[in-house]
Task: structure prediction
Amino acid sequence: MIEVADIFRRFAEGYLLAHGAGVPPSHRRAIADIVACRTEALGGHLWRCGQCGLELYSYHSCKNRSCPKCHTDQAERWLEARQGELLPCRYFHITVTAPEELREILRSQQKALYPLLMKAAAESIIELARDPRHVGGTVGVLAVLHTWTQQLLYHPHVHCLVTGGGAGDGSWHPARQNFLLPYAALAKLVRGKLMAALAKRCPGLALPKAAWRKPWVVHCTPWGEGAEAVLRYLARYVFRAAISNSRIESLDADGVTFRHKHRASNRWRRIRLSGHEFMRRFLQHVLPKGLHKVRYYGLWHPLKREEAAKARLLLLLQPQNTDLAAQSSQAGNPPETGASCMRLCPRCGGCLIHVRHLDPRQPEGP
Result:
């Protein structure tokens, strides 16, 4: 399989020479990490099969959030940590997209403005949900920032997982079956909150008036119930990189070909880019150091843990949630298999025994 790391190994040197000091530190770090990921450069471990004697080298991951090879393990750890937080209720998936007129401004000041976009989306959802005509309580919102399309074009938007109900006045207020909030009202509220936040945070910033006159794009999809299903669905958004290695089809001295799904036809298509253009598109989605792409609001805010615990208790006491509660409590406890092996030999199925640690940059691998 061709990997992003292979593309970087071929084209990164020329890309860095062409852009020089204009390459941000976060982009240089991403290039170095992805190239070194799961190679002898990061060190690792030597394992030996106790039955057939096969030796295997397991190298460390770079853990860079832009690396396509690292997000699977990160997602599993995140899922395990979230098991006790998810409420046993229905959920909705809301996507808020920034208009084209604001994208250049957002890209130019990512560390300052991305959090404002996420906060405007989440606070708008919470404010509308508190209206008795819709939910009448405080919902939980988990917001995830994405900046790409399948063709790696710049397209900043926020994915929000929202509880299908909210806590208020000591009781749980469920949302309607397939309706949470009115789209048009939510789009207008997000637009107004972001405009006010930008004016306050960056008073001298020249903002295009067209961005505040056009309707913004907001999508809301019911997602049903089931803690495990909802979490695994969301984990794809939380730890997704701009492109997965599985979508890359070919690599040569001139460029890269990869697959993307055409939204209108819902069919896979191919696109070919020069190596320089592929790196430019990929790296524009590398976030600045210290910027959190996942944020919690409403009932899921760290300061609302006591209120969230009460809401969870209210939901678990409801008769229709008895089975769901049992599933939720068991989700974090994997079945016992009785196996004593941490790793199994891919050749004979025997137990792999740890032999030694391999130091970074001084491996004894193949």
User: Anything to note?
Assistant: Residues 4-64+343-358 form one domain. The chain has two domains: 4-64+343-358, 84-242+285-331. The first strand starts at residue 44 and ends at 49. Residues 322-339, 362-366 have pLDDT under 50 and may be disordered.
